[in-house]
Structures are given as C-alpha cells and as structure tokens.
Amino acid sequence: MITDTHTHLYSEQFDDDRKAMMQRAKNAGVSRFFIPAIDSSYSKSMFQLEKDFPDDVFLMMGLHPTHVQENYLEELAHVKKWIDERHFYAIGEIGIDLYWDKSFLKQQQEAFKTQIQWAKEKKWPIVIHCRDAFDEIFEVLESEKSDDLFGIFHCFTGTKQQAEKAISYNMKLGIGGVVTFKNGKIDQFLNEIELKHIVLETDAPYLAPIPYRGKRNESAYITEVVDKLATIYQLSFDEIAKITTQNSKDIFGI
Fold this sequence. Notes:
By secondary structure, this protein is an alpha/beta fold. The chain has helices at 18-27, 43-52, 72-85, 105-122, 134-143, 160-168, 222-233, 237-252; strands at residues 2-4, 30-35, 57-59, 91-97, 126-131, 151-153, 171-175, 198-200. It has one domain: TIM Barrel.
C-alpha cells in the first residue's frame, strides 16, 4: 500500500480522464490520496472528488499562501466555516511563498499563523507550503511551537540543516518528484534523515518525477519516488511503501 499525502486530484487538468487516472494509481498500488485545499474557488470540485471516490480520498481545508490576496480575510472565513462544520484530515496547504510575490508577506504570515492556531485547537496536523521562505516559516513555527503543532513540510527541497529544523517542530518531510531530479540535491543527504520522518507525495499535476518531468504528474508516478528512496535507503520497494504509509497514518490519524 502506497499513500500519496499531497495530490490535487480535483485539478481541471484531470477533468478528461480522472477516473482512468485514479485507476492507474490504484493499479500502481496507491490506495490513499490526501487532498490539499487552495482557496474557496476549488471547494466545490474538492467535495465532488470526495463524493466520487469516498473510500480513497481524504480532504484537507486551508488557504494556500499564493492565494492570500486583498480578500484573504473572506477566504479565511470560508476555511473557518468549513472546519467548524465537518472533519478534515489536516489544515493545508498553508504557509508562505515569496517566489512569485512578496507584497502580501504580512498577510501570508497572519494567515499562516491563524490557520496553525485553528489546527492546534482541532488537534489536526498542518501541511506546509514553503517557497523561498524557510526563515519566515521557521519564525512562525517557533512562535507557535507546542505539542499540538505537528504535520508535514510538503515538497521539502531544503538543506539537511533545514530538514532537521523542520523535524524539530514535529514535521514529517513530504518527498516527491524533486528527489529524482539531477539538480534536486535532497537525494545527497536524505539517507542521513531517518525514514520515520518521511512521507511520500506527488503534488500532482505538478512536479512530475523523472522520467516524466515536464509532463502532467499523476499519483501513479509516485512509484518513481518509491524506487528512488529504495535506492537511497537501501531498502526494498515494499519496505519504503509500508514505512512511509505508517508515517502518514501517524500524522493523519487514519
């Protein structure tokens, strides 16, 4: 059993072949799909995905940092409404992204902190999106540090020191297609990080692994990530799948 802890299966990029894509993933051994939120405009399609695949799909709720704009308070109110109405498996994806635009940094920090506090109240994990913002992310995590703060550092692409720091805040490292890239760098030190700190992800339809790089990613391609980790940790494919799935259960509680 393989768990994809981060996949945007509701993306319009899958509208033409979603059912076939899900079947390909299941044929590849993927049986658990955790679905991060982006903003309110995606909620309807996210809930439809859950309705269509009730045994396989596990939803998160949150406001993605690149979607923190002038209306971010309305978007946060949407998140709060839904987390008070029903169960989600995490608050995510949330965080700080300074790659595209730095003008909303203050609002991103506020939204990140607010959503962390909601997660702690619910005793739910958080799923962090970080791009060009490790210092800013760690500053917020330090201010919110507690036993109730835990989750996944999605699409981890930092250094060994940053990995260790993320782990110190009760975060697992979400490892996906980047680990297969020649310039991905994380493969150079990952064997020094215990496997108990690792979960698998695709971030589909983005960041397809080698040999699919540049194409639409899908959850079936997670086997390329498992193969790479099997080489890095010198374990079998099945051992990587089993251990990382157990790690995901420890985080999501299911």
